[in-house]
């Protein structure tokens, strides 16, 4: 029955089967549907599909080029009997690992370029895109940061344990199974242009640099290298003390410098193409140069000098804030700007997209474009720590696109974050971009099918920071969900698949981030999560023993007069960290965009918004819209059951059910709590709450269900 429904959907127009051709097509679809029974998602966007034989001509015997040729032969799905030429040859149009495609050739200047060219060629074939292009990477280093701990757990990981580390007696042993998984991981990365991986958490454990670990790191690096993925490590600034038994980790101390030089020498002896270090220093309790009255520049430069002879780089994080300051959002800028121009050219300051911490929405960090004499790289979070973990369906590409396209005005109009960091405006010896990985041992890698789209989107945007989210979603859906025994041509002829699956699901993905902003933190609200989980709502959460800047009231500042963080000139003056005309625009309550209103302004509840509503009513309707949209997502997903294999269909369906429930909890929790300050009634047409406040305050912030005992903070 299900198969017949599936066929009905797929056949264009649902029309009758009139010819032999239609019968053949029907059979094809039936086979597709049968095969699709149990898809666990492990194949990512690289599902095999129907392939055809092809002749590949290639003169190079370089290992990576041969690998690329094999990819092409094994996955060709174009016309039968074609002859494709692969050329490893420079061209003035090719930059770095870029490539030139024609319908019958792939040319690149490096073996990695050939590999990227082949993957792009195959993707274009499957997605029916033009294959006559020149493509060069926007960023030189396109890196995944794994927050994987050496005991196998992952900080903010929602896809099971680490693919690199495990907490067993034989944790340092490497099995054939491990190598197979790392290889599949590297191949997936290469297919979207990712060329680097930091193997361990930025909250780094010193033993990562010990001889025993180095052996395993070499094993991992040897596998990742096959696909052009370079290995990097996070290092703990205090390693010379903890591992080296020195008395200090002062970056200007000759013994400390020697210790790091020796360590770096040991690393490069076994991993000659090692990428470099990622460092979280003087941040959230991590040791750093300030412990020795030295600066960030002193610390970063010490590593840079030691890594320079080998071509290594230092990614030095700007994620710093202390409890004493009056506005956390201002601190990275205040702490780093004085050192602009003092960092070596192989240091890159790694800056989170927003000034606080990977929130559903933030304005861009004011450091972008402002550091004109220092290399800067954006850091995105692919794992959804603050965006519903692996449960809520949120396509992050639109968030990153918004950031990359934000105009900083720093050099001139049009100085977008993308152009300020990819080398278009400021000359940077190295350009880079990082994404905090969402990958673990779960069979579908990411803890949910739709979270694979975020890994995919990160790679695609790192390769081309001008791509649109619409294009990325379109590609990902075609590669991930198309019935696998249809050729690309048959797929594009399957109008019902296009109209009833592709178009509405793409639309859902593209709206999903704004929808989440609406039911969680609309109009510039941020960080109103309960406790340290960062999942459920906790606008009320403020235990006495917790740092005030880790509690939501610090951020929303709701009181009898209004709501929002005053960051204007009469408040913390964060607005003046932005270049004109943004500083004035953000400062003016009438000119500040609605989406950032409560980020920059403390606004009276009765304030009249541009819509004509009061702020209170506007807030209510944003929450309501968000919830309503998730309900619509649920309904929409139910209509596509005929197009998706059972396992993935059910997984997405059950996650949407929880998302819907949790969006209701967010809406009710936030508004009932804020109402205790606004004292205003819910507007006409607004859907009344389902829960009451005492109940909401007592639920578990992770499951959003009632605890067996009261949890009232
Ligand atoms: O977002 C916060 C997270 C921490 C994380 C930190 C960071 C790795 O809650 O878990 O630590 O940021 O980025 O360093």
Describe the structure.
With 713 residues, the protein is an alpha/beta fold. The protein folds into three domains: 54-135, Chitobiase, domain 2, CATH 3.30.379; 141-467, TIM Barrel (Alpha-Beta Barrel); 514-565 and 602-706, Alpha-d-glucuronidase, C-terminal Domain (Alpha-Beta Complex). 38% of the residues lie in helices and 9% in strands. It is built from 22 helices and 15 strands. The chain has helices at 2-10, 20-35, 63-75, 111-127, 176-191, 211-225, 239-242, 254-270, 296-307, 331-336, 397-404, 417-421, 452-463, 469-481, 488-493, 495-520, 552-556, 582-587, 597-600, 615-639, 646-678, 693-697; strands at residues 55-58, 83-88, 99-102, 105-108, 133-135, 141-145, 196-198, 230-235, 276-279, 313-317, 347-352, 375-381, 432-436, 562-563, 603-604. The strands form three sheets. It has an eight-stranded parallel beta barrel. Helix 5 links the parallel strand 6 and strand 7 (196-198). It is globular, with a radius of gyration of 26 Å. The chain starts with a helix and ends in a 16-residue tail after the last helix. 4-O-methyl-beta-D-glucopyranuronic acid is lined by residues 147, 155-156, 202-203, 280, 284, 319, 357-358, 385.
């Amino acid at each position: 029955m299900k198969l017949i429904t599936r066929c009905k959907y797929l056949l264009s127009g649902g029309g009758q089967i009139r010819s032999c051709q239609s019968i053949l097509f029907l059979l094809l679809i039936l086979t597709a549907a049968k095969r699709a029974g149990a898809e666990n998602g492990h194949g990512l966007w690289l599902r095999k599909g129907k392939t055809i034989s092809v002749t590949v001509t290639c003169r190079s015997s370089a290992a990576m080029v041969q690998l690329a040729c094999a990819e092409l032969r094994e996955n060709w799905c174009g016309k039968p009997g074609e002859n494709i030429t692969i050329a490893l040859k420079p061209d003035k149009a090719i930059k770095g690992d870029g490539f030139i495609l024609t319908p019958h050739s792939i040319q690149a200047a490096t073996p990695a370029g050939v590999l990227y060219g082949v993957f792009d060629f195959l993707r274009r074939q499957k997605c029916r895109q033009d294959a006559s292009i020149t493509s060069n990477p926007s960023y030189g280093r396109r890196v995944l940061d794994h927050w994987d701990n050496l005991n196998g757990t992952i900080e903010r990981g929602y896809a099971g344990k680490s693919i690199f580390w495990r907490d067993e007696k034989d944790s340092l042993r490497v099995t054939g199974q491990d190598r197979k998984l790392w290889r599949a991981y590297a191949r997936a990365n290469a297919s979207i242009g990712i060329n680097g991986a930091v193997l361990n958490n930025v909250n780094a454990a010193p033993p990562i640099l010990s001889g025993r670990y180095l052996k395993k790191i070499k094993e991992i690096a040897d596998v990742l290298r096959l696909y052009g993925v370079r290995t990097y490590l996070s290092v703990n600034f205090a390693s010379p003390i903890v591992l080296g038994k020195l008395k200090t980790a002062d970056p200007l101390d000759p013994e400390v410098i020697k210790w790091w030089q020796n360590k770096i020498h040991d690393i490069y002896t076994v991993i000659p193409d090692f990428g470099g270090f990622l460092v979280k220093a003087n941040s959230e309790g991590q040791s750093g140069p300030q412990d020795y009255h030295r600066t960030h520049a002193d610390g970063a430069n010490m590593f840079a000098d030691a890594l320079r002879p080998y071509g290594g780089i230092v990614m030095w994080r700007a994620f710093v804030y202390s409890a004493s300051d009056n506005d956390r959002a201002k601190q990275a800028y205040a702490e780093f700007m004085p050192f602009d121009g003092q960092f070596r050219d192989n240091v890159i300051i790694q800056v989170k997209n927003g000034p606080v911490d990977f929130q559903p929405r933030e304005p861009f960090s004011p450091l972008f474009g402002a550091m004109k004499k220092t290399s800067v790289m954006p850091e995105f979070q692919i794992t959804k720590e603050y965006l519903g973990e692996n449960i809520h369906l949120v396509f992050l590409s639109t968030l990153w696109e918004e950031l990359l396209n934000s105009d900083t005005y720093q050099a001139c109009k049009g100085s977008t974050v993308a152009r300020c960091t990819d080398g278009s405006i400021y000359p940077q010896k190295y350009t880079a971009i990082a994404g905090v990985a969402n990958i673990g041992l779960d069979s579908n890698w990411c803890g949910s099918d739709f979270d694979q789209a975020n890994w995919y989107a990160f790679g695609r945007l790192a390769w081309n920071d001008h791509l649109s989210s619409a294009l990325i979603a379109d590609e990902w859906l075609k590669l991930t969900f198309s019935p696998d025994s249809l050729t690309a041509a048959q797929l594009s002829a399957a109008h019902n698949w296009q109209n009833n699956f592709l178009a509405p699901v793409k639309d859902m993905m593209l709206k999903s981030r704004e929808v989440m902003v609406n039911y969680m933190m609309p109009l510039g609200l941020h960080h109103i999560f309960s406790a340290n989980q960062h999942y459920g709502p906790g606008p009320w959460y403020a235990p006495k023993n917790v740092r005030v800047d880790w509690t939501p009231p610090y951020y929303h500042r709701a009181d009898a007069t209004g709501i929002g963080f005053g960051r204007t000139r009469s408040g913390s003056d964060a607005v003046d960290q932005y270049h004109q005309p943004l500083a004035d625009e953000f400062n003016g309550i009438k000119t500040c965009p609605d989406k950032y209103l409560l980020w920059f302004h403390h606004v009276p509840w009765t304030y009249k918004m541009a819509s004509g509503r009061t702020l209170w009513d506007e807030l209510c309707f944003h929450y309501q819209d968000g919830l309503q949209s998730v309900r619509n997502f649920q309904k929409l997903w139910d209509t596509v059951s005929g197009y998706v294999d059972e396992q993935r269909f059910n997984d997405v369906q059950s996650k949407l059910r929880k998302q819907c429930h949790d969006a209701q909890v967010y809406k009710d929790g936030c508004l009932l709590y804020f109402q205790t300050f606004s004292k205003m009634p819910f507007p006409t047409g607004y859907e009344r709450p389902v829960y009451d406040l005492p109940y909401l305050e007592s639920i578990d912030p992770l499951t959003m269900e009632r605890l067996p005992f009261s949890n009232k903070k």
